Amino acid sequence: MLSNPDRHALYLALNPQRDGGAMEVQLPRNFIDSKTANNTDKDFVVLMDGDRIGGEPGGICIGDCPNIFNSFKQTEGNSQERVLTLVFGPESRFVEILGDKGS
Tens digit of pLDDT for each residue in 15-50? Predict the structure, then answer.
């Protein structure tokens, strides 16, 4: 895991199993966040191996159901942190999470 505070970015290297995997990433707001100009929460931009992936507002599946590879969802959020759950496929290797300071 690496960060670039100037870009409001967090970088994660993956080593998935043959069936892919999932991870939960806690993002402290004082470290990385994504806000509109009105200071309301804005979706993070998430790239998987250089391609932008979509957030799944209806939920992502982990367990006894078909997983939606290369997707994410904000699963928690409060005044201190936001939590993203990412589902990735067996070929995925690199995740970029980009925030926006709302300027």
Answer: 998 988 889 999 999 989 999 999 999 999 999 999
pTM (2 d.p.): 0.86
As a whole number of angstroms, the distance between CA 67 and CA 50 comes to 21
- Domain span at residue 71 reads 2-98
| Exposed/middle/buried for residue 86 (C-beta within 10 Å: 0-12, 13-18, 19+) | buried
By C-alpha distance, which of 100, 102, 98 is closest to 10? Answer: 98
The whole-angstrom separation of Cα 41 and Cα 85 is: 17
Q: Quick check: is 9 in a domain?
A: yes
Residue 103 inside a domain? The answer is no
- Average pLDDT on 81-98 reads 94
